[in-house]
């Protein structure tokens, strides 16, 4: 019986990881093709960069739409419609003849892909709670973090025998596969009786409820701020490693992949530790590791340390993300099961919104300075720890005091 439950959890994790992977594939697969796309459209780098920004905006803002829709109409119907929309947008990108139309389609593609991100977390909350949810989210994180490692190489493989349009044809085919999985391989996890009733005012009320919940916002900010650190890493290390240390593109890809492995390793630590230690204890261990690893990064860049020092420090930082991510998501969503879609939307949107702030800051001193990168990534950990101390720890003390007063 236990083996059957494990098999079911693994199957569900693989399915949800496929939907979570749609975001990284949408963003990363075409990156190697950007120069070719620029030439074909006869435009400049700024317009091509706008297509990347559009997809990221779609992924961030789309979650605020898809989350409440999944609370209102169940998980499968919005997901199915989103996947069909994804197919149409992908094919449209492949045949687009004008850069403005291409950018609009990239935004739509991002909105559609956001359904996979937000609804996969909501389904996990529908199915699991407490320790079991933490373990499942850790398993889901471990699997889905393979996507950023695979997607750039997959894009390069496709363009080795086709034009950049082949990347979007591939994404359209991926959308078809996920549509089929939604239709025939995914059961509805939110029963009719547990769905949110009402229109726009109810959605607004639910979002207000989430933003006023100190503990929820504490966990959401911890999660979002540290992923802003990840965005800073993604934006800064290509220039730091290659321009400042002369790392080849091949070695950079290997070093970048190591951090994906570190996140997966951190998630596995959570899987092993859950049940033996409380989620709060695991979160505090992760935050401690984040503080010291980002302090090491800042020290290395200020002292003009070696590449090895920066690589090892960022590896530990990535491992801390693997620890904090699953636990913070579980703790944030634990008391919001009925509006899990909306809660998941806030978690995901905060990641992209804070990442959009941190990413440009790392290049503020030019491509040959690593100091802004060190300051930004250390600041994200400090503010995350501050959010935990103020919104969660103090909130728990206040709650405990109220209970004692009532007693």
Automatic annotation (TrEMBL):
<keyword id="KW-0813">Transport</keyword>
<dbReference type="InterPro" id="IPR020846">
    <property type="entry name" value="MFS_dom"/>
</dbReference>
<dbReference type="GO" id="GO:1990961">
    <property type="term" value="P:xenobiotic detoxification by transmembrane export across the plasma membrane"/>
</dbReference>
<feature type="transmembrane region" description="Helical">
    <location>
        <begin position="12"/>
        <end position="33"/>
    </location>
</feature>
<protein>
    <recommendedName>
        <fullName>Bcr/CflA family efflux transporter</fullName>
    </recommendedName>
</protein>
<feature type="domain" description="Major facilitator superfamily (MFS) profile">
    <location>
        <begin position="12"/>
        <end position="398"/>
    </location>
</feature>
<dbReference type="GO" id="GO:0042910">
    <property type="term" value="F:xenobiotic transmembrane transporter activity"/>
</dbReference>
<feature type="transmembrane region" description="Helical">
    <location>
        <begin position="309"/>
        <end position="333"/>
    </location>
</feature>
<feature type="transmembrane region" description="Helical">
    <location>
        <begin position="45"/>
        <end position="66"/>
    </location>
</feature>
<dbReference type="InterPro" id="IPR005829">
    <property type="entry name" value="Sugar_transporter_CS"/>
</dbReference>
<comment type="similarity">
    <text>Belongs to the major facilitator superfamily. Bcr/CmlA family.</text>
</comment>
<feature type="transmembrane region" description="Helical">
    <location>
        <begin position="136"/>
        <end position="155"/>
    </location>
</feature>
<keyword id="KW-0812">Transmembrane</keyword>
<feature type="transmembrane region" description="Helical">
    <location>
        <begin position="78"/>
        <end position="97"/>
    </location>
</feature>
<feature type="transmembrane region" description="Helical">
    <location>
        <begin position="216"/>
        <end position="241"/>
    </location>
</feature>
<keyword id="KW-1133">Transmembrane helix</keyword>
<feature type="transmembrane region" description="Helical">
    <location>
        <begin position="161"/>
        <end position="181"/>
    </location>
</feature>
<feature type="transmembrane region" description="Helical">
    <location>
        <begin position="103"/>
        <end position="124"/>
    </location>
</feature>
<feature type="transmembrane region" description="Helical">
    <location>
        <begin position="247"/>
        <end position="270"/>
    </location>
</feature>
<dbReference type="GO" id="GO:0005886">
    <property type="term" value="C:plasma membrane"/>
</dbReference>
<keyword id="KW-0472">Membrane</keyword>
<feature type="transmembrane region" description="Helical">
    <location>
        <begin position="282"/>
        <end position="303"/>
    </location>
</feature>
<dbReference type="InterPro" id="IPR004812">
    <property type="entry name" value="Efflux_drug-R_Bcr/CmlA"/>
</dbReference>
<dbReference type="InterPro" id="IPR036259">
    <property type="entry name" value="MFS_trans_sf"/>
</dbReference>
<keyword id="KW-1003">Cell membrane</keyword>
<feature type="transmembrane region" description="Helical">
    <location>
        <begin position="345"/>
        <end position="365"/>
    </location>
</feature>
<feature type="transmembrane region" description="Helical">
    <location>
        <begin position="371"/>
        <end position="391"/>
    </location>
</feature>
<dbReference type="InterPro" id="IPR011701">
    <property type="entry name" value="MFS"/>
</dbReference>
<dbReference type="Pfam" id="PF07690">
    <property type="entry name" value="MFS_1"/>
</dbReference>
